[in-house]
Amino acid sequence: MPLIEWSEKLSTKIPSIDRQHKVILGYINDLHDGIESGDCKGNLDLTLNGLVNYTRTHFAYEEMLFRRFDYEQQAEHLEVHQRMIGKVADFKQRYTSGERDIAPELLEFLKDWLYHHILEDDMAYSDHMTNHGVK
Ligand SMILES: [Fe+2]
Ligand SMILES: [Fe+2]
Question: What ligand has the least distance to the C-alpha of 12?
């Protein structure tokens, strides 16, 4: 069973952003399923790597939009992104170096992060971007 289900309430009304958020959600669910089913270490490391890389790409895309459309709260939002990248990289480091028991803590963090960041920080730019015609 997936850890997180997509629902309309997660939608920012910006299709490109929603598509990317769904990919991130997919990575988190894959990680969850892999851990649940006792997947081999190699697979989980690949998923975790994919998640970290894709998240960087997604954050860079949002930050590009912030600059292009002069988003007022970009400094704060950027800081949140940086903190998240740091935390996930930290978890990844611990996880890949053998601390397998941090998996539940990592999943809790990712789930919480996805919900909070989308529902609070990302939602905050929705109107600004849709008013500029971002799709
Ligand atoms: Fe986002
Ligand atoms: Fe964001």
Answer: 1
Cα 90 to averaged position of ligand 1 atoms, centre (Å): 20
Q: How far is CA 35 from CA 39, 49, 109, in A?
A: 6, 15, 15
The number of angstroms, rounded, from the C-alpha of 26 to the middle of its chain's C-alpha atoms is: 10
For residue 108, which of 1, 2, 3 has the smallest C-alpha distance? Answer: 3
d(CA 14, CA 127): 9
60 CA → ligand 2 middle, Å: 9
Ligand 1 centroid distance, CA of 122 (Å): 6
- Encode pLDDT of 19-43 as tens digits: 999 999 999 999 899 888 887 777 7
pLDDT digits (tens, 9 = 90+) for 52-104: 999 999 999 999 999 999 999 999 999 999 999 999 888 888 988 888 788 88
107 alpha carbon – ligand 2 mean position (Å): 19
Note the pTM of the prediction, 2 decimals: 0.92
Ligand number nearest to the C-alpha of 118:
1
